[in-house]
Write a structure and sequence with these properties.
Spore Coat Polysaccharide Biosynthesis Protein SpsA, Chain A, globular
């Protein structure tokens, strides 16, 4: 079986938790020379930058330039990626399986153009809070309240080149908009049901009630653009899936 090369983009700004993220990549049971880490840093202080430099290899790329937010930082990394399969991972997230890239590679080699995997939301100590099961980006799934985990999404470079990158004018819903566009394409989706990524809860969009409202308004606008009034059905069913995922994680 062919071993595809991976580019893993990590947006970062003054967050030393990225060292654990990098370590989870270095611990993969996959040839390290087939992995390129691209850290898109928005201008961290020298202490953070120096520590990042000690954790990466000569195969990796540290980009230090100001950006217009997390999705702009991700786009900068995606556009500079050199390898066949691209993945974005948060600076406070991690691979929880050492076989993550091996499993994704197998699905790609079986004919998929991109892979959606299962992730798990955790607290700051990596204790599970909620499962987010692998979900195919389809219009039917979106209408009935399902969403795709951005930090569980692996894609061939050609998918990004065809589907486009993230709309940085959408501060929260850029990934929602991206996957709605992807759902209209002819690219083949593969699902990885195994939980391979831990994602810490508590990002900017969910840190307080005002941000939650703003985030949902941004999602509504993106959804209305693609789904029209059917986006109301999405918001009706969305809480059901979150409760279900929470219950599963506790079982």
């Amino acid at each position: 079986m062919k071993l595809n090369s991976f580019s893993i983009v990590i947006p970062s700004f003054n967050d030393l938790r990225i060292l654990e993220t990098i370590n989870s990549i270095n611990m993969q049971n996959y040839p390290r020379n087939k992995i390129e880490i691209i850290i898109s840093d928005g201008g961290s202080d020298n202490i953070v930058v120096d520590k990042i430099k000690t954790a990466i290899t000569e195969n990796d790329n540290l980009l230090i330039e100001k950006d217009e937010g997390i999705f702009d930082g991700i786009n900068k990394g995606l556009q500079r990626s050199k390898n066949e399969i691209i993945f974005a991972l948060g600076s406070d997230d991690r691979f929880c399986s050492k076989n993550a890239l091996t499993l994704v590679n197998e699905i790609i080699e079986n004919g998929s153009d991109y892979v959606c995997s299962t992730i798990k939301y955790t607290d700051q100590n990596w204790q599970p809070i909620r499962n987010w099961n692998a979900t195919k980006p389809s219009l039917l799934n979106f209408i009935f309240g399902r969403q795709v985990a951005h930090f569980g999404y692996f894609a061939k470079k050609s998918v990004y080149e065809s589907n486009g990158y993230f709309d940085i004018n959408r501060t929260v819903a850029a990934d929602f908009d991206y996957f709605l566009r992807l759902s209209k394409s002819n690219f083949k989706c593969g699902l990885l049901l195994e939980h391979i990524v831990d994602m810490k809860l508590g990002g900017n969009s969910s840190k307080n009630f005002i941000n939650i409202l703003k985030g949902n308004l941004d999602i509504f606008k993106a959804g209305f653009k693609h789904l029209g009034p059917l986006i109301f059905i999405h918001f009706l069913f969305k809480p059901f899936w979150k409760v279900r995922e929470f219950i599963i994680s506790r079982s």
